[in-house]
């Protein structure tokens, strides 16, 4: 399993070197470290989509590769801010849990489901994820609310650890992604709330209910019909659990067109006008309707979870 380092806290700036070091040069001037750039990545996903955790693992692997590359290369000086955005993969689910395996077998038939399950287990093992298809499942709306609360309180430093715990709980430990009892416990353990009492009060309230529902609507306005869906700096978007190499190519293009922030500031970089610019790097950023966003929707990809409950176009997998 790839464990990438995110943000400024975990990405050390290279140590300055003395000019002429090792060649007898007495020049004591210090070489300035390369300016770091921070890339914002919005990940539209849902708790019950297996390709969302696989896509996250591939993105993390790409980030780890970039940050451990040759220090003379721009990719080595990238930091990343990841934010999960809500998507309701199965709107028919309610707060009343149902048996996950029975749901899949009813939808696909036992024989077809057995083939799907085996295939997804193989895909998971390749990314260090041990998929289990037993246990309950219910509406993920409260899951999205608590993830929103985590980011609102502490950005990715709070949201990412919680998302990891919830992904693992659902896919590997048969937890119900809509259980307020479980969500509250995990949120307290992740530092989102100071106590179970505070967490329970949150779930009994309507805090972030409207914001999450607006997130569902925004995803549809952007034309998102399957997850995971990754948006980089509001300019480049891809769907599906892309391989690490595909993400690295996107990082390269973002560097070329000067996307990102410097040293954690909010000021966008000025693009090098002489640098080659990829098709996805334009002057416009994404708006509420997705205009100005260069998108590869991946309609025929076999690594997305769609609204019909089948994953992957002509090669359906198990999700939803």
UniProtKB/TrEMBL annotation:
Stated name of the protein: Uncharacterized protein
């Amino acid at each position: 399993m790839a464990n990438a380092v995110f943000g400024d806290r975990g990405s050390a700036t290279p140590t300055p070197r003395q000019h002429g070091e090792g060649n007898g040069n007495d020049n004591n001037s210090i070489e300035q470290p390369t300016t770091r750039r921070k890339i914002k990545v919005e990940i539209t996903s849902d708790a019950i989509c297996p390709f969302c955790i696989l896509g996250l693992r591939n993105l993390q692997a790409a980030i780890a590769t970039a940050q451990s590359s040759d220090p003379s290369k721009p990719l080595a000086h990238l930091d990343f801010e990841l934010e999960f955005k809500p998507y309701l993969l199965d709107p028919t689910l309610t707060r009343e849990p149902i048996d996950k395996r029975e749901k899949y077998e009813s939808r696909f038939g036992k024989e077809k489901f057995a083939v799907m399950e085996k295939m997804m287990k193989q895909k998971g093992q390749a990314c260090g994820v041990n998929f289990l298809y037993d246990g309950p499942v219910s509406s993920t709306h409260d899951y999205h609310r608590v993830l929103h609360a985590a980011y609102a309180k502490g950005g990715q430093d709070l949201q990412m650890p919680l998302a990891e715990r919830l992904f693992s709980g659902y896919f590997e430990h048969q937890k119900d992604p809509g259980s307020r009892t479980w969500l509250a416990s995990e949120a307290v353990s992740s530092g989102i709330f100071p106590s179970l009492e505070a967490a329970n009060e949150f779930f009994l309230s309507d805090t972030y209910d409207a914001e999450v529902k607006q997130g569902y609507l925004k995803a549809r306005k952007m034309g998102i019909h399957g997850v995971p869906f990754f948006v980089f700096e509001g300019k480049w978007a891809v769907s599906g659990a892309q391989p690490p190499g595909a993400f690295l190519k996107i990082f390269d293009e973002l560097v070329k067109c000067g996307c990102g922030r410097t040293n954690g500031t909010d000021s966008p970089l000025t693009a090098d006008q002489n640098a080659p610019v990829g098709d996805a790097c334009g002057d416009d950023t994404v708006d509420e309707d997705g205009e100005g966003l260069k998108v590869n929707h991946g309609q025929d990809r076999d690594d997305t979870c769609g609204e019909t409950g089948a994953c992957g176009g002509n090669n359906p997998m198990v999700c939803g």
